[in-house]
Amino acid sequence: MRHPFKSAASALLILLIAGCGSSGPNTELERQQAGKSDTKNPFLQSEASWDNDEPGLFDDLFGNRKQEEQLAEQTSRIEQLERELIRRAAEGSAPSRTPERTAALEFTGVRNKVGVLLGEELAGSALGGQIGAALAGVAPDYPLSLVGQTELQRALRDARCGEASVDCARALALYPGLRVLSVVELAERDEDRLVLRIQEIDTALGIDYPAHAVHLPVVDAQVPRLSLEALGDKLLLSALERSRIAPWFTRAFAAEGEDFYLAAGAESGLKPGDRLAVRDGGKIIRSPSGSVAAWMPGAHKGVLEVVSLAGNDLAIARLVSGQAPREDDPITLAD
């Protein structure tokens, strides 16, 4: 559930947040969107806008007054709003639902699994916990299944991987069935801001995207909650865009008798009775520049049927016809 402060302030955020700080657009879609607007995002500031003399968030909100007065007034307004939100939450007031949030909550199809792995300096820290909480708060807004930090770390240990390289990420594609992994590391920190380095990996297709940076403001030694939620939105939006290169698929990570254990279940949108197609590999389609444009599954080898669900997001399937899946065979929805 999205945090009530963000729900109540959604109208303000729509006016203020236009983009996230990074080293530059990574896809053609992002470049086209970047060219449509020069609006600055006050919560994820780029390095250029942070250090120059242009008006910042306080000027945008309260006019051209002294920073001390602006900070005092903003703090007072936020405290009043938070008190009102707490009161409404106690009374059971429902959070606002934008059309996008409603669509995500009512999505009934299958969901790709994505994960955000925190680097050594962030994992176990207060800031790392805040990033994790922000991700969990915004995740319901997206048709994705977010794999938790603990499960990711355990899967990497089981694969005997010390870090999330492309080779190790392939193990995560088999189990827990991750599609896109975002590795977030602390690159720089000072009194006024911190810089995060973000590396995205398509674990199923073995694509290692160029790393980019995100800049977050620091106020009173803390990253504002809205900035953390904006970071969560950026990470999940990007993962959603990356996952659309290929249709949904999972793999069978184990077999026992007639049963095949799939790395997707209830949270991914599967249910008993679903028919799945076993595919003979797949093919990556590249653009003229050599970048990955799409992925096409191979020929049908067999058909599985989901007979039961297990754990939070696993399924047990049995072969209905054709050949049984191998470990590296993609398993898609049946036509």
Mean pLDDT over the full residue set: 78
Structural class: alpha+beta
Categorize the overall geometry. Answer: elongated
Largest sheet: 7 strands, antiparallel
- Report Rg: 22 Å
Query: Termini separation (Å)?
Result: 33 Å
Helix and strand sequence:
HHHHHHHEHEHHEEEEHEEEEEEEEE
Strand adjacency order, main sheet: 7-15-10-13-14-9-8
Number of helices: 11
Number of strands: 15
Which stretches are low in confidence, meaning pLDDT under 50 for 5 or more residues running? 3-64, 85-98
The proportion of strand residues reads: 25-35%
Task: Specify the helix fraction band.
Answer: 25-40%
For the record, the count of structural domains works out to 2
Describe the structure concisely:
The protein is of the alpha+beta class and 335 residues long.
Describe, in plain words, how this protein is organized in 3D:
The chain has 335 residues and is an alpha+beta fold. It folds into two domains: 4-243, no CATH class; 249-333, Thrombin, subunit H (Beta Barrel), CATH 2.40.10. It is built from eleven helices and 15 strands. The protein has helices spanning 4-8, 10-16, 28-36, 47-51, 57-62, 67-90, 99-105, 126-138, 149-158, 166-174, 225-243, and strands at 112-118, 144-147, 178-189, 193-202, 207-208, 212-217, 249-250, 252-256, 259-262, 275-279, 282-286, 292-297, 300-310, 314-322, 331-333. The longest helix is centred in the N-terminal third of the chain and has 24 residues, at 67-90. The chain is elongated. 30% of the residues are buried. Residues 3-64 and 85-98 have low confidence and may be disordered.
